[in-house]
Amino acid sequence: MFPEYRDLITRLKGHDAHFTRLFDKHNSLDQLIKNKEAGIEPGTPTEIEQLKKEKLSLKDELYVLLKRASVT
Predict the structure, then answer these.
(1) Domain boundaries, the chain
(2) Tens digits of residue pLDDT in 31-58
(3) DSSP letter for each residue of the chain
């Protein structure tokens, strides 16, 4: 996710608890979605769609934080 911000992500994960929490939640949702789609964990298509929307919302929020941090 966001390879162009790899160094900034590393820096923010070490210094910004809010960013780290969002980043970790995004990664957890990504894994949960993969598990549900693979049948490792139960999940309805509706539930998976909702999780994907939540993950996308987190990604959008992370992008805003990265853009803001890259300017300062």
Answers:
(1) 3-71
(2) 999 999 999 999 999 999 999 999 999 9
(3) --GGGHHHHHHHHHH-HHHHHHHHHHHHHHHHHHHHHTTSS---HHHHHHHHHHHHHHHHHHHHHHHHHHH-
Q: Which residue has the tokens 């934080």?
A: 65
Going by C-beta distance under 8 Å and a sequence separation of 6 or more, which residues neighbour residue 33? 48, 51, 52, 55
Instruction: For residue 71, give Cα distances in angstroms to 14, 26, 41, 66.
Output: 18, 23, 41, 9
Q: Tokens 């964990």 correspond to what residue?
A: 41
| pTM (predicted TM-score) | 0.91
